Amino acid sequence: MVVFRRLRACGLLLTVFLATPAMAQESSPVQAEAFAIHAQSTYVWQRKPSFASPYQGENSLSGSRATSYSLTATVDLGARLWEGAEVHFNGEGSQGIAFSGLHGLGGLPNGELAKTAGSDMTFYRARAFLRQTWGLGGGREAVDADMNQLAGFVDKRRIVLTAGNISVLDVFDAVSVSHDPRTQFMNWAFMAHGSYDYAADARGYTWGAVLEYIDEGWAVRAGRFMQPRESNGLPLDRRLGRHYGDQVEFEKSYAVLDRPGTLRVLAFRNKANMGSYGDALAAARGGTPDLAAVRKERAKLGMGVSLEQGLSDRATAFIRLNWADGKTETYAFTEIDRSVSGGVVFDGAAWGRPGDTAGVAAAINALSASHREYLRRGGAGAFLGDGTLNYGTEQIAEAYYSWRPLKRLWITADAQYIRHPGYNRDRGPAKVFGVRLHTEF
Q1: Which of the listed residues 180, 184, 315, 380 has the most CB atoms within 10 Å of its CB?
Q2: Pairing state of beta strands 296-312 and 315-324?
Q3: What is the pLDDT of residues 180-189, one digit of tens each?
Q4: Residue 216: CATH number of its domain
Q5: Segments forming the whole domain that contains residue 379
């Protein structure tokens, strides 16, 4: 009955979205929209076979066979207020059951599963923001209609202010082929820099503002956003002058042998009440360390470099290199202190299936020395805690094929292989197989 209810809910959402052709009309990029409604729905089902697990802790990925699912639906209402200004409101609903309560991995296998996931559908506001664009000349370029974006034209040289309730990843670290778990790679290690502990509540959203200067071929942006009141919590700390997540990013477009590419360099600094691994180890005096016992106001620093490069008209490669200082607990994203990831995404037009895509990617995740020792001594983090640790880098490979049988429907088969899950050589490897249904208008 539970499976039936999930499938019935997913089918109902797909039917509603696919049966609204009047609302799903695509605006011409040469015609500015004054108002638009967009929506999406995504269902992900995953299965994990059993794997070698000689021991488990409170935050381990279970070695037993298990299934997981997520279902999300989002509606975006957008309106143009005046020249250069648009406002958007997103209502969202989500439900799902994660493997082992969303524990046991650095790179978790489903980017659609929020930390507040549960078996009952929950509705909430996901976004409510204003985007103001000031044109500075340099010619005009088209903006296509999309979620949280009205069709129209903007100056190639412009200043853009986005303020309100958004996801930091709406603006930063936007690698075009490895950014959206609803249509691309599913693993958290590929949706952003793994060590980018960006400010967000437990659903992935926050309040703040970002200012961008965009010119033809390059851009620079900086933003400040609210942190959660506690590590990976849902309520946000509204003391934006005291506790915050700051980030700045430089972006440069280029061409190699007439193939386009984009370089992005990102730096971030977080300030919040966080526990230090070193302090927790010292306070434990040989016992089990506890981050909660040593929390105080601290800062976390990190940076990342990403590169995406066209290999042909039908293939794009990407790579991310990132690092965080690894001194303090994970506060809003996932337990990764250093990571390198990369892959290639192919357009189905190369084999006569325009609209289809296929991708392969791999990531190597690592922890700082104090983070490793904390886990080895039996400490528990936001996502990790096997009770002990025989450390090894966590290695992830993912491959997917996205089939587009209808204009507004994508069906994806996905497979993931995770060596040393939770950075533990004694456990795994874990395998995850999944199917994703996605529709949008």
Answers
A1: 184
A2: antiparallel
A3: 999 999 999 9
A4: 2.40.160.180
A5: 2-440
